[in-house]
Amino acid sequence: MTFASSLAKGLEEIVLKDPSSGKDVWIECDPSLSPIQNAENYYIKARKARAGLKESRERLTDFEERIARLKKMQEALQACSTDEEVEKSNPGSIITFKNIGYDRRRKRKK
Prior knowledge:
The protein is mostly helical. The protein is built from 2 helices and 2 strands; from the N terminus they run ββαα. It has a two-stranded antiparallel ribbon. The relative contact order is 0.07.
């Protein structure tokens, strides 16, 4: 922190220039901590946020792939009219009309 030596413990906020935009940025501080400790806390939070963002992106990709697979299964199942056709469309699967709660006597939505 460049200005740490000029700052005293007990500050509730500090105003600094954003190096990329040159605009003033107000930063809340914990008055019980030194400026260095406050800065360290912000660095820790930023590191955790970056790690969380990376994990969230990975999970999003995984969920998008799962959704795509489920949509394909749904399309295949909608084309079936018997449990035998379901078995053919998805060999080895435990999916049947009965265990997915589909009543063949009801009309399908089109």
